[in-house]
Amino acid sequence: MDFQNCFPVWNKLTAPQQERIHGALMTRKVGKGTVIHNGSMDCTGLLLVKSGLLRAYILSDEGREITIYRLFDLDMCLFSASCMLRSIQFEVTIEAEKDTELWIIPAETYKSIMEESAPLSNYTNELMATRFSDVMWLVEQIMWKSLDKRVAAFLLEERSIQGSDKLKITHETIANHLGSHREVITRMLRYFQNEGIVKLSRGMVEVVAPQKLESLTVD
Hints:
- This protein has helices spanning 3-6, 15-24, 107-114, 118-144, 147-162, 171-178, 182-194, 210-217; strands spanning 26-30, 35-38, 46-51, 54-59, 65-71, 76-77, 93-96, 100-105, 166-167, 198-201, 204-207.
- With 219 residues, it is α+β, with helices and mostly antiparallel strands.
- Strand 4 and strand 5 (65-71) form a beta hairpin.
- Helix 5 packs across helix 8 (210-217).
């Protein structure tokens, strides 16, 4: 799988622009748990996931985490190059949830081409709008959805990602994704267990009644 076949606007760039990207392009393999981008301290560049899974999250003043979006195969991350977008002030941290292979376009290279390429500029604006939609969706979930619905939706998403009913995940990890406390998530999962929806064991949540989880997510 080549970069040019995965980058959405590659064929709309000129040959010299393509050469500049190819000359600066980096590939990187990172292990699960590796922090790739650490807020305003870094300007990593544009990330394109070749394979794996990345998680973008923000930290509260109390040090609590909340996931704002996840990046799957062939997803592009823009906030990792927020230094080139002066209006972006997100303190986003990006880490690998799985062993991940990715391409990195340095921010300076991307910005210089974006300033002269209307297709790349338009694509960047579309990508930015998509990510802000993700953030606004998250805000709506926090404000208007009860925790049981949010936990149920997360478990269904994780079930799809892992391809199994037996989810290798801790209560702390779920709390970090949802911006909650581990103790609160534990109480909610125990309630789910008492209702026959999940079965809990150390480091694992087994979904035994996915239909009941799905019914919880329905308004």
